[in-house]
Design goal:
The protein is built from nine helices and 14 strands. It has about 230 residues and is of the alpha/beta class. Strand 1 (about 5-10), helix 1 and strand 2 form a beta-alpha-beta unit.
Length: about 230
Amino acid sequence: MGDVVHRLVVVEDEPVLAQLIGRILGGAGYTVTVAGTVAGALTAIRAVDPELIILDLVLPDGRGEDVLASLMQSRPSSRVLVLSSMTQVETRVGVLEGGAVDFLAKPFANAELLARVRARIRTPSSSQASAVTVPRYLRKAGIEIDLQQRELVLDGRRIPLTQREFVLLAYLLQRAPEPCTRAELLERVWGTRFDTGTNVVDVCVRRLRWKLSNDKIETVRNVGYRIAA
C-alpha cells in the first residue's frame, strides 16, 4: 500500500470479534476505528471519513440496514462492505440494492476478509482519482455526470446519485452504444456473479430513468440495457 494510509470504520457490537477484525486489518496496515452501535457508527464515520465501512447488520440500538440507508442519503459515495451472519438471499440482495458494495458472510476466513477489503479499496474512488489526472466530467449521448462529486448534471441542475446509480450509469455510458446484459451489470456494478433471482438491475435502471427525465436508457429485449445514441 506504499505510504498511503487507508482509513476504515468497523461497525461490530461483539467485542471479541471487533477486536479480532481490528487486529487483522491493523496488521495489514489499515487504520481502523471500531464502533459498536448505530449512533457510534454514524459519529465515527463523520469523524474519520473512511474509505471503507465494514458493517454488521445486528446492532444493540438498531439495524445495520438503517446505517446503510442513512449513509446513502447523507454520504452517497460511502463504500460499505456488509459482514453478517444473516446470509439469506433476500438479505444479501437487500443490502446490495440498498447501496453496499459487497457482502461477506460470518464466519469468515481472515484471508478472504483482507482480499475483499483490498478489492473494494482498489476500486476507483475519490482518493485514487486525485492521484492521477482524469477528466472531471463524463459526457456522452447527451448525458453528463460529475465523476468527482458523483452527480448527474441536467439542464444546469445537479442531481445526486447513489453509489450504485453512479456506477451503473458510468458503466452504461462507457459501454455505449453497446448493450449490456443483466448478468454483466450484476457482476460489474453489484460485484456478484450469482443470479440473485430479483430485479435489482431493473429497479436501479428505473430510478436512473426518473432522474434523467428522458428515455436515454433503452431496454434491449432479451438482452438488457444500453444508452441510446
